[in-house]
Write a structure and sequence with these properties.
8-stranded mixed barrel, alpha/beta, 13 helices, disordered C terminus
Length: 286
């Protein structure tokens, strides 16, 4: 266990065994075992969080987010169970279910509202990805342009030439592509030059510094200016205060997502966000 922990921490280092390592292994084993039946037992669900047009307050898109609620205890964080699903390969089945469910839900929304679904690096490497996406859109009768697939830079790191080719094929289907967690990797700017992303999502770590931190303001201003020149939409993640929203508005950011507007909600609770008054005041409706 100590050996694998040392490898996980970057190699060329050492770790002593600690009881906590044993507990981590036991926890991962429990998660893997539970995930194998979670989907069949109906324990997985999708919640949706709105992406809101900053200038007008209208909902432009909903991001689909996985939730796991085992009957034996409280909800398990996606940050904990998604890595376990990737390690076991279960993310393929779970990811396909999530995409299918999100597209079916979106088909009932007004046609100007899109749905965003995250693609795991494991899913992205699947040879059946294009066929799966095309088949899901057809089965849900959802126009391809209403689906946004969100990827992180980790998707592109292993074999960026092959990955860029896959992105081009997805683009030919008519699907929109968003680069998530922008600014946290080493090569993000380079990828913008090599593939015409439809959207970039500024990581919440930059937004949290607004409006007082000068570095956050300078970085977001530069990202927005560059994106406007390239014709790429910009969404700020993790917006939690009216002050952050005002700063993003002044900086020219297109859309915002975060608890200031709404926490992720079950599909059945989205009606008021879709049909009710828009977020013109910049305050949450829930």
């Amino acid at each position: 266990m100590a050996l694998y922990q040392a490898k996980a921490d970057g190699r060329a280092t050492f770790r002593f065994f600690e009881p906590a390592l044993d507990e981590q292994v036991r926890r991962r084993q429990e998660l893997r075992a539970g995930l194998r039946t979670a989907l069949d037992r109906g324990e997985l669900d999708l919640h949706f969080q709105p992406l809101v047009r900053i200038q007008t307050g209208e909902v432009r898109c909903f991001e689909a987010l996985l939730r796991w609620q085992p009957p034996s205890g409280g909800a398990i964080s996606p940050a904990e169970f998604i890595p376990a699903a990737e390690e076991t390969g279960l993310i393929m089945r779970i990811g396909e279910w999530a995409l299918r469910t999100a597209c079916v839900e979106a088909a009932h929304w007004p046609p100007f509202i899109r749905v965003a679904v995250n693609l795991s690096p494991v899913q992205f490497r699947s040879p059946d990805l294009l066929q799966m996406v095309a088949g899901t859109l057809a089965a849900a009768s959802l126009a391809p342009g209403r689906l946004e697939l969100e990827i992180t830079e980790s998707v592109l790191l292993q074999d960026d030439q092959a990955s860029l080719a896959i992105l081009q094929e997805l683009r030919r289907l008519g699907v929109r592509i968003a680069l998530d967690d922008f600014g946290t990797g080493f090569s993000s700017l380079g990828y913008l030059l090599r593939f015409p992303f439809d959207k970039i999502k500024i990581d919440r770590s930059f937004v949290s510094g607004l409006p007082d931190r000068r570095e956050s303001t300078a970085i977001i201003r530069a990202v927005v200016s560059m994106s406007q020149s390239l014709g790429i939409s910009v969404t700020a993640e993790g917006v939690e205060t009216a002050e952050q929203l005002d700063a993003l508005r002044r900086l020219g950011c297109d859309d915002a997502q975060g608890y200031l507007y709404s926490q992720p909600l079950p599909a059945a609770e989205l009606t008021t966000l879709i049909e009710g008054p828009q977020y013109r005041s910049g305050h949450s409706k829930v």
